[in-house]
Amino acid sequence: MASDFPRGVSIVGLGLTDVGKVYGRTPNDFAAEAVRLAVAEAGLTLSDVDGLLITDGLGDQASIFLQRDLNLRDIPLMMNVGTWGTAPGVMLETAAMAISTGQASTVVCVMGSAPMRDPNLPAGASFANATNSKTGWSGMKDANGGSPGINLMAMMARRHMNQYGWERDALGHIAVSTREWALKNPVAQMKKSMTMDDYLASRWVAEPFRVPDCCVVTNGGVAFVVTSTERAKDLAQPPVPLLGISSVNPGFFERRHEDYGLVSGAAVAGPQALKMAGVSLEEIDAVQIYDCFTFAVLITLEDLGFAKKGEGADFVSSGVLGPNGTFPLNTGGGLLSAWYFTGFGPIYEAVTQARGTAGERQLAKSDLILATNNGGSLDQHTSMVFGSSAAA
Amino acid sequence: MSSFIYGEVVRDATTAFFFDGTARDEFAIFLCDDCGQHSGPQEIQCPHCGSPSLTPAAASGDATLVSWIVLHERDRDDPAAVFRKPVAVGQLSEGPWWWATLVGADPDALREGDPLRIDYVDVAHGERLPVFRPAGPRVT
What we know:
The complex is a heterodimer. By secondary structure, chain A is an alpha/beta fold.
């Protein structure tokens, strides 16, 4: 891929509905509201939109019927991107390509999700109900403990622990520091502080993971608008340019693989995205990592190069994380403590920080932000580098 | 002792040969007609050479522990109690990896490389399922 591929494309609008235990609305209802919010925030109208990229939510699926719901007619770009956690990164990559080639000029990327249908069911059970099946190989996988996602990632975490010899309590430093950031984000679902003692007293779900090692479960919708940076200069928000993006999909899919649980796609995609952006790791001001589970943060920090392979646990335990630390990571409270719309979380927070509108949690310097998306159990990966408006 | 809970699995056209095997305590894998290597029963082509020409073969049932998790699940007979249920990825002696519940093991004494053996459990309203059991002392 040409190293200057995404230049000239910016995120110019964000939309986020009410998130959390919001009942009685369909994924498309949430998604349509998120699109309207994002388009309006950008200073655009729906009639400006000529690209709509959708990704499935959980439970009742958001779908390409969203085009009909929004009454968008004759648009040249419309598709459902189905790469799970990396879908938002892939949508951004697709939007950038479409804008670069002239296929579309204003692309909205959106997700609506409503895995929680019953207020009387625990969130985790709702999530599992939305993903489990009984029939054939997928039923076999579920019966054998191969789902839900927590089991897949916990299995990888254990292999990493065995290989590199670290204690599972290291994951607590990620959960606790991310919660500290969430307390500075007014829309984060988790409102209660959590100490390391709280973490260690929390309930096990699938050892080595406890409840706080898992992301929250969210009903709601989120969207962002992508257009050319040239056009962005006339719009309502400071544009946040995409400086580099790389997708590398290892595709373990739970089969035998020597790198299973030990290396993620970030090991290749991270350096590629940085190279495309023309920046070094040392220049990065903040990192927004896809934290479906705490372990995903640990392994991605290693693969991006912030810690040596096998030393991620030492890095996260060294006191550098959290609002009082020296390493700004998942500053919005992440998927662990804020809200979970797959890879939208890291992108949304990267844009918010790059704009300088993160309120109480705003970093003093946020000119270059590295964000990642993972899909499946580290089967897919997308790394992205965003610049500040000054770089646009 | 707490009885583990197993999900019911319903057979379909792609899994019928596998569950025909488990019904007679046989674990079916595939042997590639072209390269002669083994692959898991859920493959649609050989992961080694790409050939779609696969023939079912019975695995030996021997495996070694690759990784594991310990699920905390509600006891079926005592909903207030929680029991710890290990789930393992084992490498079959023929090569493929397989996920299954690990029965009869101390979850705190597991080590990578522990020898395992495939066994089977009957599940009400579902197919007979393969599980792993510890197969004696670890070979170091």
